[in-house]
Design a protein that fits this description.
By secondary structure, the protein is α+β, with helices and mostly antiparallel strands. The protein is 29% helix and 27% strand. It contains nine helices and 22 strands.
């Protein structure tokens, strides 16, 4: 906010940290939990203070914190990420603080140009995407260890804990990496986490969950927990991410009802208005209002799940080569007032499969295997609406080997929900209602959501 008292307060806090830690007599990695990784999150606000003030003492202090991080065994996030070490082994795998530190490291790259910072963050990002994300798009952990720490890579459970703070920092990390590269993959991750993990952690009255679960019960955080403020912060950040400048044009990054005014490098001001029911419906209309006729590109992000994409400008079709799927498609032309881009990403049901196996001791042979499936539609993850038959946490549904999607039929969306809704219909079983993850179970405390259901148990 443009009020000097906030800036002055931030400066005083920064000065206090400099006084205590700048000399090196007190090591910041000796404070906080998880071998000090919880304390080193001060790196991000210190970098922000340098960005605001251009005072070199804050940049020097940020580099000083990095050196302390790198000297401490089990915390050296930059060097470990450069070696592609799994994040479970850094800072004891504390997800929120690891990702927050990585966000600061990307900001330091933007200031210093140190490529090791960027490469370390990119490696860590890939490790999280490959091994540490829930189907809802949130960083997860907490099975058999601390609720907020990553599990070992290769381990999977449908009951993983997703901390709302981790979702917020994950969105911020993707934001910063996009700033460096302009790559669409970072907004694919923001979209998935925003429309599933983030919204799925909020209650209708504005309260938030501390942890949420792909399979599990909704519960509200205490009023003084960290996650309510983190969830609110993540929601607050999303509007500024919907559009951005990209090269000499405008990138449409997130789809949802919105409007923005953007000034291009050539000083042309462009108002862009998005009308859509996305993520519930797959039609998007973008109206373009430049201050004067002008040539510039508009970049349309094509989601990584999209198929058979259709894009039209003023009714005329645009060729969308499959090479642009999962990337940005550039539409460069002479834009005039009220030009309209119509985009359709046809939503298809997608069955995701996972397996849980138990191996014999000292052998690669399995004792048993449990096959799980989950339903996705476009950007939305789905979940069953409450406990099965009101009492059972899970039940085995033996789906056919081919065309699993045919077992899910569209049904009328219950009153007061957005849906769309589907029923799982398997012979001999009671139909089970599926709704988007964020609203399944009625969005109320104590209600269950099951994103993963058992498709079969194989005994060896």
């Amino acid at each position: 906010f443009p009020d000097p008292k906030y800036f002055d307060a931030a400066l005083k806090i920064g000065e206090l940290f400099l006084k205590i830690f700048e000399s090196g007599q007190n090591l910041i990695t000796d404070y906080g939990t998880r071998k000090g990784i919880s304390a080193t999150v001060i790196l991000d606000p210190i970098v922000e203070l340098y960005t605001l003030t251009k005072d070199e003492q804050y940049l020097n202090f940020a580099e000083h914190i990095i050196r302390q991080i790198e000297k401490k065994e089990g915390v050296s996030i930059v060097s470990e990420a450069l070696r592609n070490k799994d994040l479970e082994n850094v800072g004891e795998g504390k997800a929120y603080q690891l990702i927050w530190n990585l966000t600061a490291i990307v900001k330091l790259y933007q200031i210093t140009g140190n490529n090791d910072y960027l490469k370390a963050a990119e490696n860590a990002w890939q490790n999280i995407v490959d091994h540490h994300l829930s189907i809802t798009g949130g960083p997860w952990g907490g099975i058999g260890k601390h609720y907020e720490c990553f599990n070992r890579k290769g381990f999977w459970s449908p009951y993983g804990f997703v901390e709302t703070c981790s979702v917020m920092s994950w969105i911020q990390l993707n934001r910063e990496l996009f700033e460096c590269s302009g790559e669409a993959k970072y907004f694919h991750e923001i979209e998935k986490s925003a429309y599933n993990a983030l919204l799925g952690a909020q209650f209708p009255n504005g309260d938030w969950s501390y942890h949420s679960f792909a399979n599990g019960c909704r519960h509200a955080a205490n009023f003084n927990d960290c996650c309510p403020s983190s969830g609110t912060l993540a929601l607050e950040e999303l509007p500024e991410l919907i559009y951005s400048q990209k090269e000499n044009g405008i990138a449409c990054n997130i789809y949802g009802e919105s409007a923005a005014s953007i000034t291009l490098p050539n000083s042309v001001q462009v108002r862009i208005v998005q009308e859509t029911e996305y993520p519930f419906d797959d039609d998007i209309s973008l109206s373009v209002f430049p201050s004067k006729r002008s040539v510039f590109p508009i970049y349309i992000r094509i989601p990584d799940w999209a198929k058979n994409v259709s894009i039209r400008v003023n009714g005329q079709g645009i060729n969308v080569d499959k090479g642009f799927y999962g990337d940005y498609l550039s539409i460069e032309r002479m834009w005039k007032e009220n030009d309209i881009i119509k985009v359709e990403f046809p939503f298809e049901m997608n069955i995701v499969s996972k397996s849980e196996s138990i191996q014999k001791p000292q052998s690669q042979d399995e004792i048993s295997r449990v096959n799980w499936i989950a339903l996705k539609r476009g950007p939305l993850t789905y979940a069953t609406n409450g406990l099965i038959d009101g009492e059972e946490r899970e039940k085995t549904y033996q789906l056919p080997d081919q065309n699993n999607e045919a077992c899910f039929s569209p049904v009328a969306t219950p009153k007061s929900f957005r849906g769309p809704a589907y029923e799982l219909q398997v012979p001999g079983k009671k139909p089970q209602l599926f709704l988007p993850y964020y609203e399944a179970g009625g969005r109320m405390p104590g209600k269950w959501r099951l994103s993963w259901i058992i498709d079969g148990i194989e005994k060896k």
